[in-house]
Amino acid sequence: MGRLKEHRKTDVARAEALDAAIMFYVESRRVLEAEPYINELITLSEELEDNYWKALSLYFKSLYAYTKLDFSEFLPLINESKQITETLRVTACTHLLMSNIYLIISDYYISIKLLPESYSAIQEGLKVDPKNFKLKNNLGVIYMQMQNHHKAIEVYKELLKEKKDIAYYDNISSSYNSIESFDSSLLYIDSALYYSSTSYDSLIVMVHKSNLLIRKSELQKAKQCNGECVRLMRVCKDNKLIYNVYLNSACISANEGNLLDALALIEKAQIVSEALEGANINYHDHIKLKAEIYRAMNDYKTALDCLFEYDSIRDVLSLQQNNEKIYDIIHQQETRILEQKYEAEHQIAKQRQQYVVIIAMLIIVFVVVVMCFLIKNRRQKEILLKQEIDVRDREITAKSMGKMQSNELLNDVIEKLSEMEVHPEKNVLPNAIRDLKTLVDADTKKDFDLHFVQMHPDFYQKLLTDFPKLTQNELRLCAFIKSNLSIKEIAAINGISADSVKTARKRLRKSLNLTGEDVSLLEFLSKY
Known about the structure:
Largest sheet: none
Mean pLDDT: 82
Structural class: mainly alpha
Shape: elongated
Strand content: under 5%
Radius of gyration: 39 Å
Low-confidence stretches: none
Helix content: over 70%
C-alpha cells in the first residue's frame, strides 16, 4: 500500500502500483474491497492509451463482477479483455494475463455447470501456460463432477509431483472413496493430514477420515479419529464441520449399541443444523439416523415420525434444487446467446438477456398455473369417477335386490304349484318346477355378472393372476363380497341358505391364503 503513494508521480508507476494493490486484495480473497483501485486503473488506462493496461483493468473489473455474481456484466468484460490481449505482443505480462483470463472463464463455466465449455477454456489456458496449477486443478474438478474419478486421480497425482497441497490429497481421497477404494482413500487422507498447516484444515481432513472409517466399520479407529475432531472443533467455529463431528459421533455410538448416547449427540447436531442457513439435505441426515435408532429401540411410531419429517425436508430442498437447476438452464442459455452475439450485438445481447429472464419467469408462472389447473381438474375427475362407481355399485345392489324379490315371488308360485304334485294326472309339474328354479337362479346370477363386469372389467383377470385355482363359484362369491353384499343378500341371490354362504366364505379364505381374522374379505378384495 505504501508503494502506491510512493509512485504517484508517473502514470505508468501509478498503474503498476495499482496493479500491486489490486493483486494484494485478489490473493487475500477480498476482491470487492479492491473496487476503488480497479476503477482508478480503468480511468488511468484510458489516459495512458495502452492496450495492455486496458486489458488488465477490464480483467480486474470482470473479476470484481464475477465475485459479485453479476454474470451479465462479467461476460462482456472478460470477452473484451481476452480480445484485446490476443492482439498484444507476447511478453511475460501478457502471457500471465491470458492464462488468468482462461482460468476465470473456466471458473465461470464450472459455476454454471457448462463443463464442456470449461474444459475447452482449460485446454486453451494450458496451451498458454502448461504449468498453471489452478487450471489443472479446475480440470480435476471437472472430472470429479463428471464422475470420471480415475481421470481426476491422474490429474491430482500429477499436481502432487509439483506441489504438495492438502486440497490435492483430499480430492484424490474423495475420488478413491467414490470408487470404493477405501484403503487408497485412507492413505491419501493421512497424507493430507500430514500436510495440514492449520487446525481448520486438520479438522476438515479428520472429519473425512472419520466418515471413511465408519464406512469401513473400523469403529475403534473412527472413535479415536472423531475424538480428535471434537478437540479441534473447539478451536474451529465452523458449524458445518461441527455438525459432521456430532453426526459421526452419533453414528459410532449407535453402531456400538449406545443408543441413548447417540440420541443425545443427534440433539446437538440438530441444534447446529438449525443454525445453518440454506443447508442442504446432507445437514439433515441426523433425522434419518434418529429414525434408525428409534427403530432399533422398537419405537416404530417415533421412527416413522422422524422419517416423515426427513421426507418433508427433503421434498422442500428438492424443490429448491429444482428451481436452482431451472435457473442454471436458463442462465446457460443466456450465456450461449451472449457468447454468440457479443461481438456484433453487444447492447442487443444485454437486452435479450433481460427478455429471456422475463420470458422464463412468465413460462414458469404459466407452467405452474397449468399444472395447478391440471391437478385440480384431475382431482375433480377422480371425485366424479368415485361418485359414479358408488352410484353404479348401488345400482347393481338395487337390481340384485329386485331380482331377489322376484325370486321370492317365483318361489311362492313354485310352492303353490308343488301342492299339485299330489295329483298324478299332472306328472309334468316336477320338471316344470325344476326348470323354474333353474331360471330364477340363472337370471339373477347372469344379470349380476353383467353389471359387475361393466363396473370392474379387470377384477376377475387380476384375481386369477394371483390365484389361478379359484373356481367359478368362488370367483362369483368374490364379486358378491366386493360389491359389499351381506350374507343374507348373497344367499337370496344364489337361492341357498345363509349357513351355506358362511361355509363358502370360509373355503374362500383358505383359497385366498387368508389364515387369520385380522384382514376381512372385503378389505382384501378391495385391492383388486
